[in-house]
Specification:
Length: 182
Amino acid sequence: MLALFRLLSHLPLALLHAVGSALGWLAWLGSPTYRRRFRANAAQAGLAGAATRAAIGQAGRMVTELPRLWLGRPVPIEWEGAQWIDAAHARGKGIVFLTPHLGCFEITAQGYARRYAEARRPLTVLYRPARKAWLRPLLDSARGRPGLATAPTTLAGVKQLLKALKSGQAVGLLPDQVPPQG
């Protein structure tokens, strides 16, 4: 799987998007369970009609972007509001990044690491290892970039996050990465 993702990471983004849009619609058409969940989530988000149809293709595009985000060369990032990060660091304050999981997290983490890791300001992210064994090497490779550290979704991981914050570092929290207890 890692070899396939490495290969896909070199493809042009436009091609990945075209394939992803088609895959999004294939999943929609081929899985009644997916379709039902998608409709419920779209309704909860306030989407209807054309916006829901657009989101079907976008969901597939998001999935096919992952090889590029995880294993490809760094994506260009345009920072907006970086002065707030700089000000927090100047005051020795820790920073908490709250992001949606797939896509946004990867871009935020990579951008932060590229901009601030040289100044010894890593980003520590609460992270639950993949449940599927075949996926672990891929995610470990993708999220083990310089300037990034992972903390397990355990009490020890929460302590690791608190230690990073107290030392003026940044931490990342994803809405679905919740420690089981503690």
